[in-house]
Each structure stands twice: as structure tokens, then as C-alpha cells.
Amino acid sequence: MPIFSSTSSSSSSSSSSKSWILHGLAAGAAMAAALGARAYLGRSGRFRSRVIGIIPARFASTRFQGKPLAHILGKPMIQRTWERAKLAATLDHVVVATDDEKIAACCQGFGAEVIMTSESCRNGTERCNEALQKLGKKYDIVVNIQGDEPLIEPEIIDGIVKALQAAPDAVFSTAVTSLKPEDAFDPNRVKCVVDNRGYAIYFSRGLIPYNKSGKVNPQFPYLLHLGIQSYDSKFLKIYPELEPTPLQLEEDLEQLKVLENGYKMKVIKVDHETHGVDTPEDINKVERFMLERNLS
Question: What is a single Pfam family found in this protein's UniProt entry (predicted)?
């Protein structure tokens, strides 16, 4: 599956999207070479080389209680996410971080390593940080893999890891894909805008950019944020100490705290048909999709 591609209906927009991805990766790689990446070099001599994938999972949810344990064609959703993550070539290790004994028992049953974390974690990023500290092993990059994307492509995990490795001025990387017109005003579908070097400018639950007509422009390549993200491990230790920021609180989006504090975030655009699970009704949609494509 080619992930560094654009799906815009406008050929010029498509070319532009491809341009900023390729330019951003090339520029980041060149900068890493120029700086020597000394602050992050491991014993292997590779830039940010040690990578762990962490799947944060909590039982309590206002929209879908016990979501990680919901079955999708006979398997718990958390198991399907873990199995997909294990296929990523860039991950040296994959663990589940949870505050719930039922989720822990389920994960241990199918062979996953589990790190117990506190109920006080306010979001997945803080849960990843606590899990990393409890692991007691040194990693350069931590990938936060959302447990409610049971069909996440391993190539996307690899893509955001490589993007962060190629951008020494960034502490965070994430992925976006084309936004479907019907999702334009859905607050559960987070939108993103980026600059011409592939760095995030803003995330919003509303439609961005927003034009004068107040309607969706079918010619504009709107971007949908995918929940997966990776962090430089040094920054991950800093993140919980940062005070909540106005934009973060207003939009209820943790990415905005990163941007409001002046940190850089690298973004890649991928071809991916999202199948996130936000409500119980979404389980049926995912199962239909899997059956139609003979995915087990």
C-alpha cells in the first residue's frame, strides 16, 4: 500500500500535497545529516533508532464503556489493534498500557505485554509516558497507537516513525488522510492544516480551513487527522509537566498543547480508509467492511 500519496480530486492539489511530504522528509533528512543528530544517537549510530509502540487502553468511556474489549468478528478490538501493530517493521517492542484489570487479563490471554498505569492519566499521551517510565528501558521514539483503530495499516506506523527520524527539529509526528465531504462537520472527525514543509499548523473539530460560503469546497483537499502519533521520548517526559493551554481546552485536543507551547509536529499524508470505533454502532460498520474484503 503506497502511503506517501495524495487522493485529492484536483491534480494540482494532489501534486502540491505530494510535494510537501517529499520535501519535508528530504529537508529533515538533510538537516539530520548536517547536525549529526548527536543528541539522539544511540549505540547503533542511527538517529532515534530505538522505537516502542504503546497502545493505551481504558475501560471507562462516556460514549462506549469497555470499548477495548468489544468483539469484532470474534476477537476483542484491542487484540486486533495489537496484531496490526506487531506487523510494523520499525517497532522494536509493542505493549498495552491500561488502568483496568479486565483489559489487562484479556491482553495477557492473547500474549501481549501489559503495563498497568494509573486512572489519573488525562489522555493517551500521559498514559504512554507513565508506561514508558515503568518499563525502565531506553527508547528514542514512542508511538501512541490508538486502540480504537483495529484496521490501522502497519505502513502508517512505519511512516510516522520515519518522518520523526528525518525531522530533528520536530518532537512529534502524526498522519492525516483525505477528509470525506460527509465528515466535514462531524466534531468526532478531527481536521488538520499543515504548512508547505509538512509541519502542523492547527487541529480542529470544526472544518478548517473555513471559507466565506460556509460550505464544503469540493475542490479543496481537506485533511482528516488519524489518531496515531509518535513522540521523541525526551519530549514525552516533558509533556505532562506542561500546563493545559486555552486552545487545547477549548477543542479538547491534546495536539494543540504541543503547538501552543512552540514545539514542531511533522505530518505525513497517507491513503487510508479510516475505520475508527467511537460508538457501539461503529462495530457493525467495521465488521461489514471486513467481511466485504475477506479480512479475518
Answer: CTP_transf_3
